[in-house]
Amino acid sequence: MPRAKHALVSLKAGLGALRAREIVISCEHASNRIPRRYELLGLPAARLETHIAWDPGAKEMARACGRLLGCPCHEGQYSRLLVDLNRSLRHPQLMAKQSGGIAIPGNAAISAHERDERIKLYYMPYRKAVLSSIRSTIRRQGRCVHFSMHSFTPSVLGAERRADYGILFDPRRLREKALSLLLASALREQGWLVRFNYPYRGVSDGFTSMARQLFSPREYLGIEIEVNQKYLREPESIRRMARQFARTLEEVVEAGQRFSGTAR
User: Fold this and answer.
1) Cα(244)–Cα(241) distance, rounded to whole angstroms?
2) Is cis: bond before 44, omega within 30 of 0?
3) Which CATH superfamily groups domain 15-256?
4) What whole-number distance in Å separates Cα of residue 120 and Cα of residue 168?
5) Each residue of 150-190: pLDDT tens digit?
6) What is the residue-wise DSSP string for 132-162?
């Protein structure tokens, strides 16, 4: 058996049998909506169409995966400028005073009461819903494979980000690493440029990092998927990317159903 193919078989065996019913999808930055009471946080409406307010195309990617695999799919209902669902409560950008060099007037001076209100009304319901899905999946299936869907800007401060897909995971969790390698292999076969823990680190503050603190490596795999927004600019290209990625994820799941293992 060729060395590369042997390595993939070993990865599948280490990961264990992968089933669609183990998967939970989430999309923290699915929406650019601001409740009317906040008057767009003092921003022009056009600003809310840019990446500072949401992850364009990520919602469609998440929905396509949820539909094809028949698994739960959770979507954030409000802009990350209101409160960032992918940040911990201690993170300084939870309610960002500026984003991408743009000042957010409505976040310039948030009272303790207002902060608590946003957390209570917009942050905790989402987080509790996703965690509830993860816990129920672990109870029923023995583990949960959580994919958190995001998109990233093609460049930052004039520097090109050289990737089509970023797959973020914790390298210390061997099953997360195995699944990431398998998914990357499938995407690369289609010609995509895939990088690991890029453009962000998989262990940085985020939903999957938080969940890893709650669940053991045997019962929880948290993978964040980042897609380059240069492929997500038009409705048809978004639909095409979403369908293709969902089918790729389905193929990885189907391939994984034939293997079992004991890796921790």
Assistant:
1) 5
2) no
3) Zn-dependent exopeptidases (3.40.630.40)
4) 28
5) 999 999 988 999 999 999 999 999 999 999 999 999 999 99
6) HHHHHHHHHHS-EEEEEEEEE-SEETTEE--
